[in-house]
Amino acid sequence: MAEVVFDQASRIYTPGAKPAVDSLDLTVADGELVVLVGPSGSGKSTALRMLAGLEPIDAGSVRIDGRDVVDVPSKDRDIAMVFQNYALYPSKTVAENMAFPLKMRGMDKEERGRRVRQAAEMLGLTDFLDRKPKAMSGGQRQRVAMGRAIVREPQVFLMDEPLSNLDAKMRVQTRAQIAELQNRLAVSTVYVTHDQVEAMTMGDRVAVLADGKLQQYATPPELYDRPTNAFVAGFIGSPAMNLLDLPRSSTGVTLGGVEVPLPREISDAAGSRDRITVGIRPEDWVLESTDADAGSVIKAVVDVVEELGSESYLYAHLAEDTSTSIVVRGPGRVKVRFGDPIAVRPNPEALHVFDVETGQRLP
Amino acid sequence: MAEVVFDQASRIYTPGAKPAVDSLDLTVADGELVVLVGPSGSGKSTALRMLAGLEPIDAGSVRIDGRDVVDVPSKDRDIAMVFQNYALYPSKTVAENMAFPLKMRGMDKEERGRRVRQAAEMLGLTDFLDRKPKAMSGGQRQRVAMGRAIVREPQVFLMDEPLSNLDAKMRVQTRAQIAELQNRLAVSTVYVTHDQVEAMTMGDRVAVLADGKLQQYATPPELYDRPTNAFVAGFIGSPAMNLLDLPRSSTGVTLGGVEVPLPREISDAAGSRDRITVGIRPEDWVLESTDADAGSVIKAVVDVVEELGSESYLYAHLAEDTSTSIVVRGPGRVKVRFGDPIAVRPNPEALHVFDVETGQRLP
Amino acid sequence: MTTTLERPAPDKQAGGAPMIDRAEGWRRRAPLLPALIFTIIVTQIPFLLTIFYSLQSWNLVRPGSQSFVWFQNYADVFTDSQFRQVALNTVVMTLGSVLIAVALGLVLALLLNRQFFGRGVVRTLLITPFLITPVAAALLWRTVLLDPTLGLVNFVLSPFGASGTEWISEFPLASVMAALVWQWTPFMMLLLLAGLQSQPTDQLEAARVDGANSWSIFRELTLPHLRRFIELGVVLGTIYLVNTFDTVYMMTQGGPGVASANLPFYIYQRAFLGFDIGQSAAMGVVVVILTLIAATFALRLLFRTFSGEEEAA
Amino acid sequence: MAVTTSTPPDERTPDTAEGAPEPRRRRGNAVDVWLGVIAWVVGIAFFFPVFWMVLTSFKTEADAYTPTPKIIFEPTLEQYEGVFSSGIGPYLANSVGATVISTLLVLLLAIPAAFALSLRPVQKTSDVLFFFISTKMLPVVAAIVPIYVVVNEIGALDNIWTLIVLYTGMNLPIAVWMMRSFFLEVPGELLEQASIDGAPLWRTLREIVLPIISPGIFATALICVIFAWNEFFFAVNLTAANAGTVPVFLVGFITSEGLYWAQLSAAATLAALPVVIAGWVAQNKLVQGLSFGAVK
Amino acid sequence: GCSGAGALGTAEGVETVTVAIVSNPQMEDAISLSPQFEAENPGIRLRFVSLSENEARAKITASVATGGGEFDIVMISNYETPMWAQNGWITDLEPYMARTPGYDRADFIPTVRDSLSYEGRMYSVPFYGESSFLMYRKDLFEQAGIQMPAQPTWPQIAEFAARLDQGEGQRRGICLRGKPGWGELMAPLDTVINTFGGRWYDPQWQAQLTSPEVRRAVQFYVDLVRTHGQPGASQSGFSECATQFGQGQVAMWYDATSAAGTVEDPEESTVAGRIGYAPAPVVATPSSGWLYSWALGIPQTSPRKDAAWRFMAWMTDRQYIQRVGQEIGWTSVPPGSRQSTYANPEYQRVSNAYAPLILQGLQRANPQQPTVQPVPYEGVQFVRIPEFQDLGTRVSQQISAAIAGQISVDEALEQSQNYAQTVGESYQR
Ligand SMILES: Nc1ncnc2c1ncn2[C@@H]1O[C@H](COP(=O)(O)OP(=O)(O)OP(=O)(O)O)[C@@H](O)[C@H]1O
Ligand SMILES: Nc1ncnc2c1ncn2[C@@H]1O[C@H](COP(=O)(O)OP(=O)(O)OP(=O)(O)O)[C@@H](O)[C@H]1O
Ligand SMILES: [Mg+2]
Ligand SMILES: [Mg+2]
User: Fold this and answer.
1) Cβ separation D232–C246 shorter than 8 A
2) Which residue from B168, C41, E253, E353 could staple onto A195, CB 3.0 to 4.6 Å apart?
3) If you write DSSP's letter for every residue of C206-273 in order, what string do you get?
4) Residues A151, A200 share a domain
């Protein structure tokens, strides 16, 4: 139950090299679940480990509940952490695993047992308390790791890709459980993942990292609707936003031989640039009849159709410009197949525009 | 370039125990991509390995291109396989890895080189031919494994969870690539995955396995629209279909104190049963105003909101019956938060109904 | 084809499959045979002969003394108080050295399992005793280190008034054990170091976050993790040390009396100084039986250790 | 002097404007340094006897026998000349021969055996393994009498091949065990992939498996070399003039008419040198081998 | 082809004679001179296996007893020769000697010659012979004002030792062997037992090791070495004592006469030239020196007996003594084998301090009647029965333990008596 503040915090593994985490500024409000997301090597784990006290903080500071923890060892920071491979103690039973942090804090045996049983009940682990981790499935181990974190009732939860060792089905289930649990316990949580779906579904706020630098820190809808740069735009959303590098025309841009008008404020923001990067989410294409007039729709040829039941994704390349590929969301049931022609039109209201060079959002 | 037939094929690991694959009947048409999907331990890998000749076939037969291969050793079955961890030969370079099956077949060096280069080009591996697998990223290794499979120009491709070692982003990219490649080469392919999204997006047809038994074998839309039983219904689709065990009423069923009418043909099929299992996909709920009349809408309280940008999922429990949880798909942007009340109504056209005991589809 | 399908599954099993299995089985087993046969010939036949000789009275230096005496030799072995003394020495020497070496090895492994300047050099220095030919090592200990007048140990201890100690005659068993410990500690250190380095770091980090201090981490996590390696060290060390011959031979010749003699040396003496083939064979058989009893326990341990490992892998 | 990964204060990124806190230090730095010093002290203590042996080997006998040990002296090679002129040559040759040939034989026998044992269908795998390792448990000394008698009967006393055979038998069980654990580390899919690719068993072994486990083979070989080189019991009892190995030479070197420490040190140094160097060079592999592949 | 392939790199074509010897300075000299022999006899190559005494004895006995055939020449002593001759393990050398012109059999010292004979025929030829005597530091005795009697007694020696002992860590009074082994500790101790009137067996083969005489003798020996003896006594044998005495760390040393060559060698000894010699101390017998000879024999199994003899003859004839004297030095000649050596003026010049004493010791030694009372065995410092190697060694281990202070003398003798009794029983029937 504490506010966590990263204040220009940096970590430099190899002196002289690029920092793994570069002057990170981030505030996690009390009780909030913040997700750190970013591609591999972007410094997510490092940031988390700095907070946990597992990595030194080479510059700046980190504060938990107002206290600078730079020189505070892990064990005194009152945090709990869930690791990617759960880091369960293989020689201990589930109950012993969960009781370990309490034992280390000198809690008496009875109280330990009580708390462990309570957490086990909450997580449906009561029947497994005497098992060794080896004898449990991935999902069960994950829950034990969660249990070990929650018995502590710490100030902050830290989780480093806690779901990545689970299968897809399990992951979807568990992420809802974790989110719900965190809601209930209202413990400030920093959650690391490289999966943007997880980030979007779980985070109260999401911090997108790339190359050790914070790209954007916002709520999921904001991230989705107004990505601050092309990186975030491409990273958030699945399938990814179509990012097309297009030449300007008088009223907008030219795409596949078709004139796409841009809304006024975007046009203004784009200024005198020759080319701009236009981002169109798969769901922001409108599928038109293939008979439509050539000037008003963009013709494309389907490469792959992915039918998910509730919707479908068409991977296609433009008829005019075969090197440009686009992804279009279609309805649950589409008739088109590999090689079929389609005609699409972007929804002009939902366009994102970025600078070609810097990738910064334009309007 | 061959038809693959499983004909009542079974595999019993431990004599006396339940078969890992139980009288499997399955036909893969020439050039088709069939996905075997199912939960862990359902026998997918075993079935694939029977086809590959890595497991004996204890009963029934397997035919490739009309030839019974029960007693044919792997190497003479003219198949290529891609393993989950790629099984690249660590001591060989990429080129040597890809050339190895050709070398074993006594192909001369020049021809080998030609084929390897050709495959490498197709997969964008030309620059890596002299690298060892150790020095490559997961995605690149995956492509090498694909390359090793395609140089052979075999009759059948077998792939056992070939994407599960890739990260989420990579997986989405690569699955489209594989589907496209298979389309182009038109080699009959059996693809194993436990991820129903992969199954739905990649398969011409999908075979759902559970406990060694084939549950349903159909195209993805059919699987989604008409699952033959509650297992398939729950397995296909993400988040999973809401499966609710409900008491019959005069015109339909009672859900959360509300009378939900059933279409006539379903009602007829349900016959005199007291209770039936009703399946409602998350997108088949209609969100109503919470002010609506208590009798016509189902009231629920939100536990978790997952906002994916393009859509959102509301995990809620019924107000009337707190032990029943439902998942509801909402629009990209919803205002509701944890603890908010919502009101929903199922789309009666899209209901799936199953027998409570057997799980069989009713109409 | 359908008829095949109608047939019950075991039928098919009974038909073609086992034949293939048998041929396949032999094909896979064949590579094992040379090693197996070789081992049987080299190790088992001599043991059978040992049993045969143990039933005879046969002194090499008295020609014509060979005759069957059945279990007389065994009776003599069991009434030989020296033999009991030597058996006890063997246990003390073997287990004592192994346990001390493991304990020291653990301390050294912990010291080396951290970053410090010149770690590689220190490790290299530490492993050297293990590589030294035992004969040379024993000579080294007997002369350069433990000699009462010229030895380094007494020289180093002389400021403390302990000079002139005749280590080898006053503490013969301890002296031999010191040499053995010196040689085997590096082995244990290497093994345990490998064990330490195989401990997943995330477990250690988890423990730190969970509030454990270094000692708790060691006791609660590291030690259980190392157990398998400690067992392996004890078993391997015992296998080799129970056969110690060179060190005893070179350092003390088992003396004074039999104070530092172990079974291998004692049997050697009976065989190659006493030339009493029957007696020494009988002792050999007794030793084999005792070792087998001990080994069964040790092997259980080893097997558990290794099957556990396979499970984990 | 301990090297830590912390960044010196001056290397911090300069733009830590406001908070610009105090220099960062690593906790327990002093303790780290002290433990490092202790490690050094212990390492030197363990090594010192060896160092002293080497040092002594460069002394004259007079310098070697001083009640106050001499560190400063005029080094001489006369002891080594003495050792070589007293005929260590054939013994070295025998040691090298027995060690190399027996190690090669061990590998030749153990690789196929371990491969077979690491594959699934050999029945009674654990019985066979049990047998192998149990032969290691039996004290050699119990068999020395019949071995002596048998070897004598077939006229193979003092024959280097006798030692080679015995050393092979001595090292084989451990080698099979070690190699099997290395083989087990080879992912099964690789073998399956190879069989799908159409490679016969021996080719799979040669082209796929052996390159992967070559560090393991190396470690195994090294351990066989160490034990064969240092073996004394068989050598002293079964050899005389022709087939004596270096440890036997060392024993013969202790003349009954006077212990010459310096010369002895030179001989001991020469005896230990090959294995010590091999061990130093390959210490990482050694660790891997000694832990039976339990460590990746 | 395994025959002859015993070693890697064996030279083929010439006859290789393998010689098993006990490594001692005289043998090292012989090895260093042996290229001359090879030069004179191009068809013969020599290969030496030199081992320390204990190892050599074990190895040679095992090889000869089992017909192992590794050796063509073995170095054995007057302990083994008659027994092995009786067993037919070694070759009668009389025909060879007779065939060899100038090989003067009669020149061997008679007691030595007899001890190497079986039924009057020599089965091994002596390389050197030794008795035992007492060496002492003349300079120290002078300083302390002690006069060494012409025939000292053990109590006198004990008193001198006490007076010359400077205490722990400094110069001690005497060096006496304490290292187990019948050829080590047992040799001097046996002479002490004999002269105290003790014996191993009575004529009925009853073991006598707990008799009062033996007790007294052993107690005396152990006490002397424990109170005034060298450090590390239970581990020191001939070599260790040679070092101690040569480095001036003890004032007296009772040991083999062959030690003279070593301690008088200024290269190895810091006390050369300051040493006095006295006959073996006595108590109840008129003399107590032992009789021992390292000799060379040919195992019956050797297929190269002629070549072997050629070398043995070369090594034990008069010319060899000359050769060593001229090429290596007269202090180094192997003593105690030939009477002519003692008549050689050059030898007399360097060895007059001790040579007469050695000759006298050898001539007075009486293996048939070593002690006061009658015994059923032969030998001064050993009992010539095959079991003695083992028995003597086992007993010596006990005494060595007593010297180390691990057990008491009584306990040691009790245990020894058991061993001896068991052995004795097999001779009673
Ligand atoms: N111990 C280390 N020593 C040196 N560099 C390191 C270390 N750990 C991480 N790095 C580097 O720091 C950067 C950030 O690594 P970090 O592990 O924080 O990334 P991440 O975002 O967690 O990636 P992933 O999703 O792969 O876990 C990377 O470039 C990495 O190579
Ligand atoms: N070698 C084996 N011996 C005995 N039983 C086995 C063996 N391999 C698999 N099984 C059993 O056969 C059943 C099917 O296993 P299989 O590996 O085919 O499942 P799967 O569908 O591939 O699962 P996953 O998604 O986890 O890979 C399981 O119950 C499994 O325990
Ligand atoms: Mg990470
Ligand atoms: Mg599988």
Assistant:
1) yes
2) B168
3) HHHHTT--HHHHIIIIIHHHHHHHHHHHHHHHHHHHTT--HHHHHHTTT-STTTT--HHHHHHHHHHT
4) yes
Q: D13 and chain A: CB distance < 8 Å anywhere? A: yes
Interface D:E, Cβ pairs < 8 A: 108
* Unique residue bearing structure tokens 């653990």: C106
Distance CA E396, CA E182 (A): 6
**What ipTM is given for this predicted complex?**
0.80
D244–E47 CB contact, under 8 Å: no
Mark whether A259 and A125 lie in a shared domain.
Answer: no
Q: Please tell me if the CB atom of residue A46 comes closer than 6 angstroms to any atom of ligand 1.
A: yes
Neighbours of ion ligand 4 (CB under 5 A): B 45
Where residue D121 falls among pLDDT bands split at 50, 70, 90?
low
pLDDT of residue D294: 52
Q: Which of C2, C12, C19 to mutate to test the interface with B (most CBs of B within 10 A)?
A: C12
* Residue that is last in its domain, among B235, B264, B286: B235
The pLDDT of residue B280: 93
Ligand 2-lining residues (CB < 6 angstroms): B 13-14, 20, 38, 40-46, 194
Q: How far is the CA of B49 from the centre of ligand 4 (A)?
A: 10
**A191 closest CA partner among A203, A175, A201, A200:** A203
Residue B51 belongs to a domain with what CATH number? 3.40.50.300
Q: How many domains does chain A have?
A: 2
**Each residue's pLDDT tens digit, E99-157:** 888 888 889 999 899 999 998 899 999 998 888 999 999 999 999 999 999 999 999 99
> Does the pLDDT value for residue D164 go beyond 90?
yes
Chain E residues with CB under 8 Å of C82 CB are 415
Q: Decide: A17 in ligand 1 pocket, CB within 6 A.
A: no
How does DSSP assign A279-306, residue by residue? EE-GGGEEEE-TTS-TTTSEEEEEEEEE
Fold classification of C80-312 is: MetI-like fold (1.10.3720)
| Among B324, B260, B349, B330, CA closest to B297 | B260
Tell whether A153 and A36 lie within a shared domain. yes
Last residue of a domain, one of B220, B235, B250: B235
> Are B63 and B181 members of one domain?
yes
pLDDT at residue E346 above 60?
yes
Query: Domains (ranges, CATH) in chain D?
Result: 87-290 (1.10.3720.10)
| A19 and A131 assigned to the same domain | yes
Phi, psi of A338 (to 5 degrees): -50, 125
Assess whether A37 and A181 both reside in one domain. Answer: yes
> Of E335, E167, E130, E352, whose CA–CA distance to E251 is shortest?
E167
Distance from CA of C148 to the nearest CA of E (A): 6
A265/A162 same-domain check = no
Q: Give the confidence band of D296 by pLDDT, cuts at 50, 70, 90.
A: very low
Task: Give the pLDDT score at C3.
Answer: 32
Helical pair B94-104 and B109-123, crossing angle rounded to 10 deg: 130
Is B156 a residue whose pLDDT tops 90?
A: yes
pTM: 0.82
Q: Is there contact between C and B if contact means ≥3 C-beta pairs under 8 Å?
A: yes
The residue segments making up the domain with residue A156 are: 4-235
User: Phi then psi for B68, rounded to 5 degrees?
Assistant: -70, 120
Model confidence over B27-45: pLDDT tens digits? 999 999 999 999 888 999 9
Among A6, A10, A24, A46, residue to substitute to test ligand 1 (most atoms within 8 Å of Cβ): A46
Task: Collect all residues with Cβ–Cβ distance below 8 Å to D187 and sequence separation of at least 6.
Answer: B85, B87
- Distance (Å, rounded) from C-alpha A116 to C-alpha B153? 58
Do B30 and B105 fall within a single domain? yes
Please indicate if any CB of chain D lies within 8 Å of the CB of A13: yes
What would the pLDDT profile of D186-239 be if each residue is shown by its tens digit? 888 888 888 888 888 888 888 888 888 888 888 889 889 999 999 998 988 888
Band the pLDDT of E331: cuts 50, 70, 90: confident
Across A271-296, average pLDDT = 85
In tens, the pLDDT along A320-333 reads 888 889 999 988 77
